[in-house]
Amino acid sequence: MRRFFRWALIKRFLLSLRDDGVRVSLRKARNYISLQRQDGLASVLSEPDEPVNGYLHGVWADMARGGGFHVARRLSEGRRIALIGDLNLPQCRKYRVEQMAEFWASQGVPCDFAHYEDVPRAAQLLQNATHLCEYRLKVCPETTTLRYEARRMGLPVLYDIDDPLFSVSAYGTYQNMKMLDPWLETHFMSEAPKYAGLMNAADMISVSTPGLVEHAGLYTRRPVVLRRNFADRDTLETGAAIMAARPDPDALFRVVFASGSQGHEADFELIADEVEAFVMADPRRRLIVLGHFRADALPSGLKKQTEVVKFTTYDAYLSHVAQADVALMPLQDDLFNRCKSAVRVIDAASVGVVSIVSDVGDLPNLVKDGETGIVARSPEDWSRALNMLAANPDQTSTMKQAARQWLETHWAGQAEPHVIAPELLEWVRG
């Protein structure tokens, strides 16, 4: 049984517990144990028999004895980024890892990535790199070993993060935590210094929103710059294909609420009364709830006109969003959410759906109020917006088209200051 209680597996289980919930996490664990017992699951990330830095120890010792331990970065050969990160969360991998690789490739800079626990591959990427980017990592044996190797080679280090995982103060005010087991809040707070420790040892820090730029500045004296999430090529192409295949409008008016992780019942509470009143006022109206959401958090009268859909793949998620006329994005106003990005706006706009958003985090910055979506600053604003969009189908259709067009022209992966800070471009190119 020891092989099932390795620290690497425990960490993965905790991440799944946070993002998928108890039921899904236990199912994953059962499937994994079953496959292991049948010898049906081979993993390159299995626990080594030697310490994690054993992979590099012999090489380090030989170079140290030979006087060639320290090497200079090879800028004359062109820039190349090694991106080493936590790749376990699909949305994070898409928006902060795969997007980064796509963006830098468009700038003529190859960017290769690896999961931090895959030490052999990560170490190999470092041998050909001129820069290291660490994504969403904390202090642990794997990350400290790889950071040591990067410093041995003289590589400048960028630390990238898209949530205030380093912030005890953000977790202490995060309203969504009230919907989860109390021990999870204690766990995340205890992990925060580990993220801050690795972050503070980097040369530069990139984050996903202006709010996170400001908040990270409370925890570090390193330069903090902005690299927003954007609509990558795959999102735009997939969205266009889904829009083209969308059936003709029917008599129903649908609103969608997507919950990508546990605890977003706290956000829905902000608009539950307004949504219930709107949907129940007309039998042709529907609420679609996507992802992680407790059915008992819905008002009882609303359930009969609500469809709850679990997440499967990203494309399937976009297809469900595309069925709606309006996407609802409420956020509790707290320190954690003020750092939040607007990926849900990007997702909705990619399939031509209007967003109504709270005036929190980066949400209002990706919406042209009254043109591509609506910013709601009070409960009354949510009611007015929903009723206006339902009563004016032509205006709603125009806003849908405008949302998609603005995404294509303003929020794709261009090297502009509102997407990526000039200091970050110079850090790589200079």
SSE topology sketch:
Layout (H helix, E strand, L loop, with lengths): L6 H14 L1 H16 L16 H13 L14 E5 L4 H17 L4 E5 L3 H9 L3 E5 L5 H12 L4 E5 L6 H6 L8 H19 L3 E4 L2 H7 L7 E3 L6 H13 L7 E7 L5 H5 L2 H9 L4 E7 L14 E4 L4 H9 L3 E4 L13 H8 L3 E5 L14 E4 L2 H13 L1 H18 L11 H8 L1
Parallel strand pairs: 1-2, 1-3, 3-4, 4-5, 5-6, 7-8, 7-10, 8-9, 10-11, 11-12
Helix pairs in contact: 1-2, 5-6, 10-13, 12-15
Which terms would index this structure?
six-stranded parallel sheet; 17 helices; alpha/beta; 430 residues; 12 strands
Give a concise summary.
The protein has helices at residues 7-20, 22-37, 54-66, 90-106, 119-127, 141-152, 168-173, 182-200, 210-216, 233-245, 265-269, 272-280, 314-322, 343-350, 379-391, 393-410, 422-429; strands spanning 81-85, 111-115, 131-135, 157-161, 204-207, 224-226, 253-259, 285-291, 306-309, 326-329, 354-358, 373-376. With 430 residues, the protein is an alpha/beta fold.
How would you describe this structure to a colleague?
By secondary structure, this protein is an alpha/beta fold. 46% of the residues lie in helices and 13% in strands. Helix 4 links the parallel strand 1 (81-85) and strand 2.
General shape:
globular
What share of residues is helical?
A: 40-55%
Q: What gap, in angstroms, lies between the N and C termini?
A: 52 Å
The stretches of 5 or more residues where confidence is low (pLDDT under 50) are: 38-50
Structural category is alpha/beta
Radius of gyration: 23 Å
Q: How many β-strand stretches?
A: 12
The spatial strand order of the largest sheet comes to 2-1-3-4-5-6
Main β-sheet: number of strands, strand sense, barrel status? Answer: 6 strands, parallel
Strand content: 5-15%
Number of helices: 17
Order of helices and strands: HHHEHEHEHEHHEHEHEHHEEHEHEEHHH
Mean pLDDT equals: 89
